[in-house]
Write a structure and sequence with these properties.
The protein is mainly α. The protein has eleven helices and no strands. Helix 3 runs parallel beside helix 5. The radius of gyration is 18 Å and the shape is globular.
Amino acid sequence: MHEVNALGGVGNGYQGLHEYEKAEEYYHRALAAWEGIPGNRAIYVTNLSTCLRLQGKLDDAEKLVTTVIIDRNDTSTFRTGHAMYTLGNVQIDQARALLARDDKELGQAKLAEAYATHLQTHVLWLATLGEHHHKIGDVRHKLGWHLHRQRKYPESIRMLHAALKIFKSSHLYQNEVARTSYKLGCVLQDSGQIALGRQEIEKAEDLRFKILSASELYTAVTGEESFDEIVMFWSR
């Protein structure tokens, strides 16, 4: 297992650097090294699925991650929720592709499917990780995204505040604070609270600048994707 974890760790590192082709190679090597060894392969299978999704290989990503979702009600391990979270993200990107082709009916149906998947992820992680784990913050951010899309602004605002409460409990989650604060600002503005939303967006932009200014990675904010890029791939 030392070789498996070493290879998988390199894959995680490359994916964190957005070098997805290299990450994909190392995940495949890790899973090949795992052949014949007992254990739950769901973590690296799921991370590989995310890697495929971020390269636009959506059908491959969906096919792969569903191989480790045996029971969508499984609360024996957090890994099922990990896979479900990724599946929901794949479904969002599939919906975007359908909507881009003007297939509105199938696109909206796929978004509804993604929302249901993320709702179930929330249930599973509450049961396996507890109320205060950072992954609960991740999925609450995502549920806030869904509710914003559905124009359920008060519900979205409450969900994003709940995510921020978790992220602000530790200095380790400044990137997540920036991302969720930006999203909260967007929802507030869409709900008619323009000034308050602007305040949240400015705070998020300032925090993002502080996070990135010491490196050569800073670029001007262009939208939500500018904040998605600064959180780890498993939290997107």
